[in-house]
Fold these 3 entries.
Entry 1:
Amino acid sequence: MLENIKAVIFDLDGTLVDSMWMWHDIDIEYLSRFGIEMPDDLQEAIAGISVTQTAYYFKNTFGIRDSIEKIISDWDEMAFDKYAHQVPLKKGADRFLALLKKQGIRCAIATSNSRRLTDAVLKAHGITDYFCEVITGEDVHKGKPAPDIYLESAARLLIDPANCLVFEDIPEGISAAVAAGMKVCAVDDDYSAQNKELKKKMADYFIINYGDIPEMA
C-alpha cells in the first residue's frame, strides 16, 4: 500500500479517531436547546463540510438566531471535554503512525473540524509530533467533497498529489481525495456503515482497522 507513497494524509473524525458518535450526540443535544428534534438525514446533509458551513446550514435550516460565531463557540465547548477525555484512537492508528515516521513518510491531518478541537484530540493522545501539517476547515474556502483541503495539504507538504495516500471514512471525503489525484484508503466506521460497499468501490483500498494494512503485518 505504501509503495511510491511519500506522504500520508488523514481525515480526523471517524478515520483517525473514533468520534462520530460524539457529534451525533452533540447535534441532538444542541438542537434540543431550541426545542428541535434532530432530523434523520442531518448527518448525511452535513457530511464533509467545514464547521463554518455546518453552522450556516443549522442557522438557515433550523432558524437559529444566534450568530455563526456563537453557534461554533457553543459546539466547541460541548465537544472539547469529549475530545480531550472520551474519544479513542482507531485501533492500530498509533502503531501505523510510528511505522510511517520510521519510514520517513510525511504525515498531515486534513479535517473539516476546527483547529482547537483537532489540536485537543491530537494532544490528548500524544500524537501531535507525528504530523508535519494540520489543515482544518478554517484553512480552505470549500469543504469536502471539493478537493481543496487535500490539495492544500499536498502543497504544504511539498509532495505531488500522485504520491499521497489519504485515509478517509465517508464518501464525500473519498471524493475529495480522488478529485485531488491521490490514492485513497477507506476506513470502516459504524456511522458510515450504510455506505460500506460504496466506500469500497470508490477507494483504492479498504480497511476495518489499521492492523489490516499489509506493512503492519
Entry 2:
Amino acid sequence: MYQERILLTVKDILEKNFKIDTRGFRPQEVDKFLDIVIRDYEEWANIVNELEAEKNDLLNDNMRLKQEIRLLKTKLDVASTSETNVGSSNADVLRRLSNLEKIIYGKE
C-alpha cells in the first residue's frame, strides 16, 4: 500500500554504481541520486507519522469501546440483579397473600 510511494529499495541503494569521471564520480549523478534518497526518507517519515496517528486513533477508539463495554456490563448486572430481586419479592408477596387468604378464609 505504501510501497508505491517509495522510489528506491534497499537493493537499489546498495547496488547503485556511479560513473567515474576524470576527477571521481560525476557530481550531477550523485546529487540526483541523493535527491531521490532524501525524497524517499521524507516520504518514509510521512508514512511513519500517518501510521502513528492512525495507531493512536485506533488505540483511543479501543479504549473508549472497552469503557463502553464495562459500563454496559455494569448496567446489565444491575438490571439482572434488580430483576432477580423483583422476581423474588413478587414470589414473597404471593406467598404472604396466600398465607393471609388461608388465615382469613380458613384452611382448605
Entry 3:
Amino acid sequence: MQRSAVSTQAVPIPAFRDVVQLLKPITWFPPMWAFMCGAVSSGASLDGRWLFVAAGILLAGPLVCGTSQAVNDWFDRHVDAINEPDRPIPSGRIAGRWGLYIALIGTAVSALVAGLLGPWVLAAGIVGLALAWAYSAPPFRFKTSGWVGPAVVGLTYEGLSWFTGASVMTGALPSTEILIVLVLYSVGAHGIMTLNDFKAVEGDRETGLKSLPVTLGVKNAARLACAVMAAAQVIVIALLWQWELTTSALIVLGLLIAQCAAMPRLLRDPAKYAPWYNAVGVLLYVLGMLAAALGLGGYI
C-alpha cells in the first residue's frame, strides 16, 4: 500500500499547457476546414443549426483530431525522443501513463459528442476514432506504411470531416456528388501527408517506419506527392464541369495552375522546400476544396 501511494505521487497530473501541446492545436485546422467545406457543400441553411455546427467544429478539431494526436504521441514516444525530444511525453512533462489516459478520455468524449449529432455523424466519428488508433497502435500501426498511413490520415482529416459537416447540416447521408468530391480530395491529401513525412526522415529510418521519403527517396516521394495532389484535382475539375458547376470548376482550375507553378521549386530541393510548399501549395489546395464546396452547395 505504501509503495502504491509513493508511485501515485511520483506521477503528477499534467499541466494544462502540456495537455494542449500534446493535442497539437496547429493540426486541428485541416479537419475543421474540411468540416466547413462539408457544411457549405450541403447547401443547407444555418438557421437553427448554429449549435450543431459549433459542436461539429469542436468534434472535428479539438476532439477527434486532438485525440488522434494524443494516440500518436503515446505510441510514437520513442520516435519523438529522436525527432522531437521536447514533446510533452518524451520530455517527461506528461509522465507515466497520462498520455494514454488522455487519449482514452478524448476517445470517449468524441464518441459521446458524435452520438449527440446524429447517427451518420456517430458512424463517421467511430470510423475516424478507430482509424486514429489503428494508425499509431499495434497490431495495425498503419503509419509504418508510406502508402497506407497517408491514405488513412487523408481520409480522416479531409473525407470524414467533410462528411461530418454535410451530415450535421442535413441530418442525412450526403449526396452522391458530395461523396465523390470528398473522396477525391481525400486521395489528393495523400500527397500532403507524404510531404509532411519529410521532416522526420532520420527518425523514421532509425525506427523502421517505411514512409515514402524513406522507401522511394526524397525526390521521388515529392514527385509522387505532387502527381497525386494534381490528379485528384483534375478529376474534380472535370466532374464539376460535367455537373455544369462552371464557375467552381474554373476557380479550382486556376488554383491548380498556381500549385503547378509552385511545384518546380519544391522538386528542386524537397527536403528544404517542403515546409514552404505546405504553406503555399497546400493553401491553394484547400482553397480549391472550398470553391468546389461552394459550387456543390449552389452558392457559385
